[in-house]
Amino acid sequence: MRRGQAGFSLVELLVVMLLSSMMLTLLTGFFRANAIVRHQMGLQTEAQQGLRATFEMISQELRQAGACLPRLGQFIALDGEDHESRDRLTLRIGRTDGDTLVCIRAGTTQAAEEGDSTLVVAAGEGDLFAGTTLVYITPNGASGNFYTVTATTSNSVSIDGGLIGDHPVGTGIYAVDERTYEVDISNPARPVLMVRIDGGAPQPLVEGVEQFDVRYLLAPCDASGCATTTDEPADDDEWRQVREVAITATVRSHKQDRQGRFLRESGYVHVKPRNLI
């Protein structure tokens, strides 16, 4: 009876404890490795999403650059500056009416002299420019200048600073949206791609953008490609020859992994501005 009611022996308990500790060690290692992998994947996904967002937003606007704006003359839809791997890119898009999606533009009904700050347009056309900050005004369709809008009425558009030169009846007024992209490195630990709208204060767009390298492909172009690629067109004539824009970007994760490293994603995109299609 005593022998039948006896418990586990010391050897048996030691064997069970050894097996249990081995299993716990294996499980702990598994869960730790799984946590590390998930952490790495999260950081990698974050960098991938940042890169995708950068390309999608800028590509979409580049494809519209020059839309609803003069395609001839001296108007240039693009601008930029080369700063090694962190360039500045400016693009200009004609605004459209939110209800009709028609391009916002008008022709003057009265001549205006140099220095005038108010242009008269047909009744109702001035209302289209409500909320517009920037306009491009051309007296002949071949040359013109940008002006800041100060006020609008049903039949007038007022600008800051006054006109440069005389402008006849029929002078074209085009509503413009301008976007300038540039990497802010004021905090080297966290570079941010910023966007400046119509010359306003820069706003954060995508965090972790370490590289924003813009190159321009110049005409002539054929099926095999373009003749010349440059980091920055030298003058207005070269800007008018731009047929495609190539952007290389690198985005890093917000946090470091367990080894103290940032995870990075790099990519490359080619875009043709709208007014060159």
Query: Which CATH class of the domain at 94-176 applies here?
Result: Mainly Beta
Compressed to H and E, one letter per element, the order equals HEEEEEEEEEEEEHEE
Can you tell me the residue ranges where pLDDT is under 50 for at least 5 consecutive residues?
Answer: none
Overall pLDDT, averaged?
88
**Which architecture of the domain at 94-176 does the CATH hierarchy give at level 2?**
Beta Barrel
**SS element count, helices:** 2
Helix/strand-derived category reads alpha+beta
| Gyration radius from CA atoms, angstroms | 30 Å
Which of globular, elongated, flat, extended, rod-shaped describes the shape? elongated
Features:
2 helices, alpha+beta, four-stranded antiparallel β-sheet, 277 residues, Elongation Factor Tu (Ef-tu), domain 3
Overall description:
The protein has a domain at 94-176: Beta Barrel (Elongation Factor Tu (Ef-tu), domain 3), CATH 2.40.30. It has helices at 10-64, 236-240, and strands at 78-81, 88-94, 105-107, 118-120, 134-138, 145-153, 156-159, 172-184, 192-197, 203-207, 209-222, 225-230, 242-252, 264-271. Strands 1, 2, 3, 4, 5, 6, 7, 8, 9 and 10 form a 10-stranded antiparallel beta sheet that branches. Strands 12-11-13-14 form a 4-stranded antiparallel beta sheet. It is built from 2 helices and 14 strands. The relative contact order is 0.17. The mean pLDDT is 88.
Write the layout of secondary structure elements.
Layout: H1 10-64, E1 78-81, E2 88-94, E3 105-107, E4 118-120, E5 134-138, E6 145-153, E7 156-159, E8 172-184, E9 192-197, E10 203-207, E11 209-222, E12 225-230, H2 236-240, E13 242-252, E14 264-271
